[in-house]
Amino acid sequence: MLRQQFPFCLMSVNITHIAIQALREECLSRECNRQQKVIPVVNSFYAATFLHLAHVWRTQRKTISDSGFVLKELEVLAKKSPRRLLKTLELYLARVSKGQASLLGAQKCYGPEAPPFKDLTFTGESDLQSHSSEGVWLI
């Protein structure tokens, strides 16, 4: 199986920028008003945007050289259809909780390579080191 390098840190900074711009440009106002919350909406929007990016990266086999184009398309989608991204995240999380989706795939993972969902909560580097024998996850 071909594994693609994923510039997680770089993409995280860019998605943070997209989320802040969407908030400043009032693209999230309707959802913030509907939920009567701002920070939880922005957090969910960030996660939804990252989920979409990860999906595009993996399914379309994107590389570092594609990142500028991918981010531009993502920014347009995020500002134009924030509710769509949030709804996709909501549906995805419901599927994960039922065991019908993996962290980045559409189907449940089986076998020794299945992500250990109960182990996904960590608070620092020491927690990551304790799981290093389980292998490295690449998107």
TrEMBL record:
InterPro entries from the xrefs? ELMO_dom, ELMO_domain-containing
Q: ELMO domain: from which residue to which, for each copy?
A: 1-82
According to UniProt, the name of this protein is: ELMO domain containing 3
